[in-house]
Structure formats: structure tokens, C-alpha cells
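Researcher: Please translate sequence to C-alpha cells.
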Amino acid sequence: MKINRLIYNPEIHFNHKKEWTTKDLIYLCGVYEIDKKRDISIALERTENAILQKANILRKQGLFEKYKEMYKEI
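Model: Translation complete:
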């Protein structure tokens, strides 16, 4: 089954290949399990693949839950 993910589009992915801000990471982790990946992608102006990859990296580094907790404190 093919998954239809948003591919890079310079008109909507303004943050493509840019550094992730702390604010971006907090938002990503805070809504990752409740929002659609496409919506997160649009909100952060990054591709869906970048969203998935960053979440996986943060989990491996043990930082995902830290940022998720920071989101709850906002």
C-alpha cells in the first residue's frame, strides 16, 4: 500500500533543510500523537518525511518526552 505524503514543495515548505528551533521541537512532540502528520507538516513548513524522521531521532536520543512535557506546560 502506497502512502501519500506531501513531497517537497518550495511554496509551502519554507523551513526545508533549515535548523529546527526549540519551539518547533516542542510543537512537534506535543502534537505528534494527536494531529495528522500532514497538518504538522504544514504548520512547521516542513515535509512529512522530515517530521517523521525528526520524531524518530528525538525518540532515539531520549528527548521526545522532554519536549512533549514542555508543550504541556505552555
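Researcher: Any highlights?
Model: The first helix runs from residue 22 to 31.
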